[in-house]
């Protein structure tokens, strides 16, 4: 499973299925003697501990049961059954990385406790890998035995704090899976989500050609003057079949399905052309910000940015690329090379959602970046929440000390804007000024200087 630094603790047994695994009296209490996996009592105990920890909301449980196992014992006796169970355990152990727990929980039942990263689809994807694994027949003494599996899943949403309840839920989902056929192995909600995910993937492949994608632009204003100095281009998708699909839903699908590069190329192309046109016709000072997925962050991006600038006639300095902290980690030479090449082109680089990603700041020192975009979660609790004030202030100060500018996103009230101005935050973005607007609306607002009139840091007598 994918993992990050905040994943579940390592509790996976030491190569549990190896026949020669260490086995002294202490292990007998926690290991299943046949498969050397954790036993039911131990795995339930660990699960109980996890459910009491701060990570409880990310815990997922998969209950895996072999289909038709009872027949195996009838056909070949317990020796055959035992070989197959050991092989099944070994296959599952091969899927586990350093996180999560695997155990045997009944005669032919296995339990996996995994970090679902707050997303049920993580579990669904994991379950799919298990199904694929059991599509391969078991081979014992030259004969092949096909045994599928049924999988039930449960997550610790709704504040589940009871390990046995969670295991029971996963077990009943597994029994439903048995009844309805092997493919429908999870509960209705998860199944609906998976079906929707696949539908999104299919439709998204044609969305660009069908003209269903568009960009909207959210103004970015100067914190002192209220003048609109730029706009963030935001991707929107209105599917003919599904209606409006939120970027938070379709972007991860695009990333997983390998569609991000082509969609990202289109976004850059459109945004540069649009900004080029605005600057040429009536707003020579306006810059455009474009969000870049970590998956786009490579050599191709550099070439494409250069091509878009060339075609649109847009000044490189009027293009800002927003990258999340996730995109700048870890220490990959390719990342440094991409940053260096983009800086050489003259485009501005901004860290998006600053403060929510990796806590390492070393990349700020290493890379020549231009702007920090402070995450909305800090802005929203301004100006009354002391911690948010402290963090925001520190980020602005740090940005300036490093020769960077700071932008606050999610600004909704005048109080927030005033506090940010007083902290020295350079630019502001949010509903206080404007919702994301169509290109025509944005152009209107720019030429009327409407947005600027809504905000001026100098206190007005009649606000
Ligand atoms: Mg952004």
TrEMBL record:
Domain EAL: 197-450
Spans through the membrane: none
Domain of life the protein comes from: Bacteria
GGDEF domain: residues covered: 57-190
Ranges in coiled-coil conformation: none
One Pfam family it belongs to: EAL
Protein name as catalogued: Diguanylate cyclase/phosphodiesterase
């Amino acid at each position: 499973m994918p993992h990050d630094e905040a994943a579940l603790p390592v509790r996976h047994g030491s190569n549990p299925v190896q026949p020669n695994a260490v086995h002294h009296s202490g292990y007998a209490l926690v290991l299943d003697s046949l498969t050397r996996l954790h036993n039911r009592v131990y795995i339930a105990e660990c699960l109980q501990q996890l459910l009491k920890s701060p990570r409880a909301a990310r815990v997922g449980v998969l209950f895996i049961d072999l289909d038709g196992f009872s027949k195996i014992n009838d056909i070949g006796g317990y020796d055959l059954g035992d070989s197959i169970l050991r092989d099944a355990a070994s296959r599952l152990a091969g899927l586990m990385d350093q996180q999560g727990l695997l155990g045997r929980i009944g005669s032919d039942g296995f339990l996996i406790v995994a970090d679902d990263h707050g997303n049920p689809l993580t579990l669904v994807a994991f379950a799919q890998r298990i199904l694929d694994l059991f599509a391969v027949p078991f081979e014992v003494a030259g004969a092949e035995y096909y045994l599928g599996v049924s999988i039930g899943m449960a997550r610790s949403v709704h504040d589940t704090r009871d390990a046995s309840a969670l295991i029971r839920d996963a077990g009943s989902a597994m029994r439903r899976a048995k009844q309805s056929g092997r493919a429908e192995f999870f509960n209705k909600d998860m199944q609906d989500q998976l079906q929707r995910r696949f539908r999104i993937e299919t439709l998204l492949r044609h969305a660009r050609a069908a003209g269903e994608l568009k960009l909207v632009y959210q103004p970015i204003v100067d914190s002192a003057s209220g003048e609109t100095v730029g706009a963030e281009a935001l991707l929107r998708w209105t599917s003919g079949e599904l209606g409006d699909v939120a970027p938070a839903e379709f972007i991860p699908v695009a990333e997983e399905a390998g569609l991000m590069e082509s969609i990202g190329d289109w976004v850059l192309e459109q945004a540069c052309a649009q900004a080029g046109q605005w600057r040429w016709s009536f707003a020579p000072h306006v810059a455009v910000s474009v969000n870049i997925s970590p998956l786009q962050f490579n050599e191709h991006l550099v070439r494409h940015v250069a091509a878009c600038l060339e075609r649109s006639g847009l000044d490189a300095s009027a293009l800002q690329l927003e990258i999340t902290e996730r995109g700048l980690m870890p220490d990959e030479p390719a990342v440094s090379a991409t940053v260096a090449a983009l800086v050489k082109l003259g485009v501005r680089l901004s860290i998006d959602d600053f403060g929510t990603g990796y806590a390492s700041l070393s990349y700020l020192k290493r890379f020549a970046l231009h702007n920090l975009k402070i995450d909305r979660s800090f802005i929203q609790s301004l100006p009354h929440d002391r911690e948010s004030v402290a963090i925001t202030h520190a980020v602005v100060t740090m940005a300036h000390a490093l020769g960077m500018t700071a932008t606050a996103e999610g600004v909704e009230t005048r109080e927030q804007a005033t506090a940010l101005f007083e902290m020295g935050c350079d630019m502001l973005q949010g509903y206080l000024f404007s919702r994301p607007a169509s290109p025509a609306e944005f152009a209107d607002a720019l030429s009327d200087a409407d947005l600027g009139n809504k905000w001026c840091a100098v206190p007005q007598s009649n606000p």
